[in-house]
Structure prediction request, 121 residues.
Amino acid sequence: MPVSYTIEKGYAHCRAVGTYSFDETYRNYKAALDDPLFLPGYHLLMDVYDSEETRSSKEMELIAELLGSHPRFGKKCALLVNPDHTVRFGLGRMLSTISELKQIDMSIFFNIEEAILYMIS
Prediction:
């Protein structure tokens, strides 16, 4: 399955691998946020390290809007990207900037361990 999520203690880990549609990604994030195990104040780890997709700026805005409007989301988000994919890193920076306008604290990581530490700190 190219998109999936797990609920961990304090955050949801949403993972996207290979090729998939934006709708699949959006539904996956929404499902994680709406999951009864996703408690108020939980955060989100967006793991696109193994993704082959590149999203548009409009799609970035839709994701930021979803996160910013969700009542249980704890307003902290880690984005895990592959350092070899500079375009995806740049889009991640765009998402981070858009998210700031929604009072979301988003950081970009190249290492899963650092991203998880950020989620639980």
Notes: The chain has a mean pLDDT of 95. The chain has four helices and five strands. Helices lie at 22-34, 57-69, 86-100, 112-120. Strands lie at 3-8, 11-16, 42-47, 73-80, 105-109.
